């Protein structure tokens, strides 16, 4: 396996700089762990992420899934801010509890132009998935 191109601390700093709306100090998302083709990102539980029925919203889980793939991609190829999502599919499997959500991504394809990630989302402290997603990113020419 190849070494990561960015450390977890470098990725958190990059995301804070490029996406302060989500990753700013004290923000909703934080990078917890990374490696080549891997990332774990946390979404902090907050009332603004709740929807009727006292559950975390689908759009919040989609944000988490998308951000986690992006972090895994950057850990693998370095800081490429113009890599963009071209597809995101998500299956909501069960109602998440009022806890932080943890997403883990593993890149299942990393090519010159496209990357595909497999993402599992869990409520903190729980084993079962609350959502499963796949996402495809377009990688720009360097």
Give a nutshell description of this structure:
With 142 residues, this protein is of the alpha+beta class. It has helices at 8-18, 20-23, 58-77, and strands at 29-35, 38-43, 50-51, 55-56, 84-92, 101-110, 114-123, 129-138.
The biggest beta sheet reads: 6 strands, antiparallel
- Sequence of strands across the biggest β-sheet: 1-2-6-7-8-5
* Unreliable runs: none
Gyration radius from CA atoms, angstroms:
14 Å
Q: How many H/I helices?
A: 3
Assembly level = single chain
Describe the overall structure:
This protein has helices at 8-18, 20-23, 58-77, and strands spanning 29-35, 38-43, 50-51, 55-56, 84-92, 101-110, 114-123, 129-138. By secondary structure, the chain is an alpha+beta fold. It has a 6-stranded antiparallel beta sheet. Strands 3-4 form a two-stranded antiparallel sheet. Strand 1 (29-35) and strand 2 (38-43) form a beta hairpin. The radius of gyration is 14 Å and the shape is globular.
